[in-house]
# Entry
Amino acid sequence: MKKIAIIILLLLGIQNIGFSQSLEESLEIAAENNPELKAYFNDYLAALEQVPQVGTLPDPELSIGFFIQPMERFMGNQQADIQLMQMFPWFGMLKTQKDEASKMALAQYEVFQDAKNRLFFQVKNNWYEMYRLEEDIRITEENLEILKQYERLALIRFQSAGTGGGSSSSGMSGNATMSSGNSTSSTSSTGGMGGSMNSGSTSKNSAKSNSSMNSSASMGEGKSGMSDVLRVRIEIKELENTLALLRDSRVPLVAEFNQLLNRNIDERVSPVDSLTDTALPLERLAILDSITQNNPMLKMLDAEEQAYEAQKKMARLEGRPMLGAGVNYIPFSPRIEDGMPMGGNDMVMPMIRLTIPIYRKKYNALQKEAELRQLAVQQRRENTVNQLSTQWSSAMRDLDDANRRTRLHREQTDLAKQTLNLLMTSYATDGRDFEEVLRVQQQLLDYQLKLIAAIVDQHITIAVLENLAAIELN
# Structure
């Protein structure tokens, strides 16, 4: 009984050991190393380079013509014809082009921001799943150790039952013999030899009956104790198989996590932090407002709409004339006439050029194209808002469900522990209800795993809202 009491105290004294792991450092590494995120950022930088390209004047044109034989003119012999011309777009065209390119670059930046948010969500989600797995492994290992202590407890009771049964049978036989002797003496003094023989026979039968009953009880208790040992071994085998599967599940999760951080897939992930219950720091409608204001995809569509507005203005300005200013330089050499040099003064002629955009269909089509693209962006934005609102609603439902499950499984865990304590006390006293002890222990394991899953689901849901609203909520 002393061994049994010690084991029960050890079982009741087991405490949960928290598991923890880092997240902030992992997010920083992912932001610095993830190749896909780098690609999106380079796309943004490339889009920025469009701004100086469209914001400058077209290259000046220089044309030079030489005469193989000098052209005789009144001013002298013309040697060449040199023209330099610079074209200028209509007023405001360059500014509008720069504005359109800037808005397109801004849209590309929001694409980069959306990619970063999605990457951060993937890192968080994977990190939470690894935390859930490590907690499942920890809890399963603790329960496996408890079952092994149950096995030792059942073995001790089985061995005690066998030893105690034999002692009881001997004791009962001795008592029966003493009783038989006393009865014989009494009969001899009063009833003679015949009475003594009848009394002795009766005493022997009684002793045999008691010995047989004690032996049957001992055998029954021994069988029950052995069945308890076998039951707990079955549970141990099942839990060992579950634990092996959980440990094998580490490999793909760690590989995916390291892939997001662009590291070796087998690099170890070190624990630093732990997860606890969490709650939203903002009102629900405030989060929805933040989604409609800060979501990168909505900002991208807003930037595209502004870019197409600039394209409409560009289409109108392209229908205006382009102006050109230049100079024509004609070098002359003196012409000999009657032995006298004549002329020879070079000629410089300022020039103006003007394009005449008379084919209006092209410019009207450009303007119509920009209007239709702008309308498409507006409709796409409206659809995106609807989708984001639906995702927000689903996330709120999932968060409420995770909060309810967290409260439920915490209460169930406490009740299961209390029940298990009572059952263990009862089993230590009379050895009954061992199967019920195993059943409640399995329930406790299930509630503990579900509690961890509910807490992880809380954090994953908040990570979803952070991804939608592009803000930090934790």
Notes: The chain has ten helices and seven strands. The first strand starts at residue 61 and ends at 73. Strands lie at 61-73, 76-88, 323-330, 332-333, 335-337, 340-342, 347-354.
